[in-house]
Design a protein that fits this description.
The protein is built from 1 helix and 8 strands. It starts with a strand and ends in an 8-residue tail after the last strand. With 109 residues, the chain is mainly beta. It has one domain.
Length: 109
């Protein structure tokens, strides 16, 4: 089982102007283990196939992660932000199931 040390992105809602709320990402450093590590190319209608990973990442849950596990949006792996598809709580750990590449509301990766 390989070790993980990287950033996890949490979404928080902040009021940009009166009555207008936007999602702001807060990154926090976490440590953990890779439970499984797989990748595949998914055929698309466009020109190129998409790379999709189906990795399970088990991180040590600090108090912030335990309280805000529902707002985890991505995990950084090999320089890319990967979308978190599901979070399984098994305190003192959280298992994150990763999917495709994460794109924020502005289309940035």
């Amino acid at each position: 089982m390989a070790k993980f040390c990287g950033k996890i992105g949490y979404a928080t809602m902040v009021e940009e102007s009166p009555g207008v709320w936007i999602e702001k990402i807060v990154e926090r450093q976490h440590f953990g283990d890779w439970v499984s590590n797989t990748a595949k190319l998914q055929a698309q209608e466009g020109l190129n196939d998409d790379l999709v990973i189906a990795n399970d990442l088990s991180i040590v849950a600090d108090p912030y992660a335990k309280k805000n596990f529902h707002s985890i949006r991505y995990a950084t792996y090999m320089g890319t932000k990967w979308r978190v598809r599901m979070v399984k709580e098994a305190y003192p750990r959280l298992t994150l199931v990763l999917g495709g590449v994460y794109n924020d509301s502005n289309g940035n990766q």
